[in-house]
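Q: Predict the assembly, please.
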Amino acid sequence: DQQVKQNSPSLSVQEGRISILNCDYTNSMFDYFLWYKKYPAEGPTFLISISSIKDKNEDGRFTVFLNKSAKHLSLHIVPSQPGDSAVYFCAASEGNAGNMLTFGGGTRLMVKP
Amino acid sequence: DTGVSQDPRHKITKRGQNVTFRCDPISEHNRLYWYRQTLGQGPEFLTYFQNEAQLEKSRLLSDRFSAERPKGSFSTLEIQRTEQGDSAMYLCASSLRTAWDEQFFGPGTRLTVL
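A: Predicted assembly structure:
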């Protein structure tokens, strides 16, 4: 049973436009959420995180929004750049789980020049 | 470069053979994690260490799997009597100390069981 789901396996956007990647979770014990980016032949790289006490966290072009009532989070990339083309994973953890991460299946983002 | 390193990067083996992977975490990182990623899926947690102590194991870690971190530095993951279903990318990650410290991932070891 998947506790973290990314329902869009792929997303294509034009350079300079906004990319919105979505993630849903079912475990109400999750209280820390992260986004990782993965290029081919490399391990996932941490991008941005958000604690359940917040509903928004921003870092440069990347913003993560958390809607706890809907058990939904999203990653916004503005403006999108060709170098952002990668697979993006949403992950979640419970506060006392030693930071054991539960990942979604990933969304492949393609940013076209 | 002082990132997480894994060895080997690729391993091809025949069903029934034993394989061992090594992970070297970032220096001074106390926590070390193993994940497995199959094609089209996200990484799945296997186990993690706080220094040399193995604190959590997933139900995915069957009796054929064993992980060690004998001196609290590098870690090994051994799979005995490999099966075709073991074919996957095995990822190692490390983090500094607390439950909120970012995990840094290595490039992974891709295992193919024929």
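DSSP finds no helices and eleven strands in chain A. Chain A touches chain B at residues 4, 6, 9, 32, 36, 41-46, 49, 89, 91, 93, 95-106 (CB under 8 Å).
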